[in-house]
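Box 4.2: Ligand-aware structure prediction
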Amino acid sequence: MQTSDGLPAEIDLSRPSAARVYDYFLGGAHNFEIDRRLAEQIASMTPNLAATMRSGREFLRRAVRALLDAGIDQFLDIGSGIPTVGNVHEVAQAANPQARIVYVDIDPVAVAHSRELLTGNDRAVAVHADLREPKLILDEARSSGLIDFDRPLGILLAGVVHFVPDADRPADVLATLRAAAAPGSFLVISHSTFEDQPQEMLDAQRLSARTDTEITLRSRAEITGFFGDWTLLEPGVVHMPLWRPDSPSDVDEHPERFGAFGGVARYDRPAG
Ligand SMILES: C[S@@+](CC[C@H](N)C(=O)[O-])C[C@H]1O[C@@H](n2cnc3c(N)ncnc32)[C@H](O)[C@@H]1O
């Protein structure tokens, strides 16, 4: 259902939303005063944060390209966010017009804008669902008719698993998603960390408690664990700019300042 200004009726404008704050940082137009105020407060504490978010987006683009090069033509992008420059379906369908994408986000504004952008694209849909209920996401992806779980797919979890607190068992969520994938599938994760971070980053993280989606920073070892027994591609789980940069000159002198690790793993058919 929509309100008269075209927004989904279920949107809560009394609290900032992580998706809309993120959209503001990326220069998007789908945010409100309450989101901008929080974004400015976070930005004043961590001037680097907008660059961090762009770096996350760049990591995702490079990872999607690597999957396309490996022949992947179907993507399940969970926590896909508000559409912005270089969306996964744009990167994927530019390389392979037959590529199919199911976007999933918990934020109704993100889903509404994604649907608007995808009008007329019969190989991409946006679904409103919660990563903490992975079975529902898998059901939705199956019933969309766009993803064939008997064939390899790319599962994208960029900047979203840190919104799942330990109490909601993120390792189990990941295990459920991995179990649904055919051999040859890939898993892409980027995740905020406390490792190598200055105090102001940790303070800014505390502000996320004001949104419905508080961030849980995790160690490299915990993040690596989310890939289970899948085979990590080189260079492993690294600070995001270090993951296969387009050019060595793209890598900041302090790649740790972007505050997140990224990695990509492949599900190799078990031996035997
Ligand atoms: C930082 S943005 C990342 C957007 C995009 N993946 C990227 O890398 O550019 C995180 C997104 O995750 C969504 N999100 C947070 N918790 C979620 C959950 N439990 N289930 C699904 N999406 C969630 C937010 O609404 C937001 O759009």
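In the box above, the bound molecule is S-adenosylmethionine. Confidence is low (pLDDT under 50) at residues 1-5.
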